[in-house]
Amino acid sequence: MDIMLFHSAYGPRPAVHAAADRLRAAGHHVHVPDLYEGQTAGTVEEGMAIKDRIGQETLLKRAILAAAAYSERGLVYAGFSMGASIAQTLALGDEKARGLLLFHGTSDLAEVASVDELPVQLHVADPDPFEPDDWLNAWYLRMRRAGADVEVYRYPGAGHLYLDPDLPDYDEDAAERTWQIALGFLESL
Fold first, then answer.
1. Residues 6 or more apart in contact with residue 111 via CB below 8 angstroms
2. What tens digit of pLDDT does each residue of 18-47 get?
3. Is 2-188 CATH 3.40.50.1820?
4. Cα separation of 54 and 50, whole Å?
5. DSSP code at position 71
């Protein structure tokens, strides 16, 4: 399975590469584009500043260019937080997408055509200040109306970026449960 894995607003930190290695160890081909062109952040504020300097349009263009070389084969799009938002945008616009795996984030659905039962799995902290309950409920309903086959997994007490062991949000138990479920999801595609 080809997976396009997008980093969070922190940039391509070691945890992103460790996640890619974990997916590769499970037999997947993983591509990790550097949308920040070598920049990483130590705090969420620094990451958001980098994101804002680059701009959402440029980030999406970089993501599209990175995915273009592989999209003919049918990609699974995946991402962390900001990268999940980008992955969602690309997957919903790619009729050959095989799946969408979201960690810590979603994106708005403006006008989405039918996605023909696209398998979607979301893993998110509970509560998550960036993904409040009302937002997630509305997101889920819009995704279902678009035709996606959506699974949502919530992790009580975990911090927003709970998969990154180098951040204060890290939650080892939630991270292990997430990886077990996510790897099973990928095997089912």
1. none
2. 999 999 999 999 999 999 999 999 999 999
3. yes
4. 6
5. G
| pLDDT tens, residue by residue, 114-124 | 788 999 999 99
Angle, nearest 10°, between helix axes 14-25 and 172-188? 40
The single-letter DSSP state of residue 147 is T
What is the spatial distance between Cα 139 and Cα 143, in angstroms, rounded to a whole number? 6
Q: Which amino acid is at 158?
A: A
Total count of residues recorded for the chain: 189
CA distance 19 to 163: 9
CA distances to 6, 62, 145 from 79, in Å: 4, 14, 22
Q: How confident is the model at residue 112 (pLDDT cuts 50, 70, 90)?
A: low
Domain residue ranges of the chain, discontinuous segments joined by +: 2-188
Query: DSSP state, 42?
Result: S
CB distance 104 to 26 below 8 Å? no
Cα radius of gyration (the chain): 15
Rounded to whole angstroms, how far apart are CA atoms 40 and 112?
32
81: left (phi over 0), alpha (psi -120 to 50) or beta: left
Residue with tokens 């970026």: 161
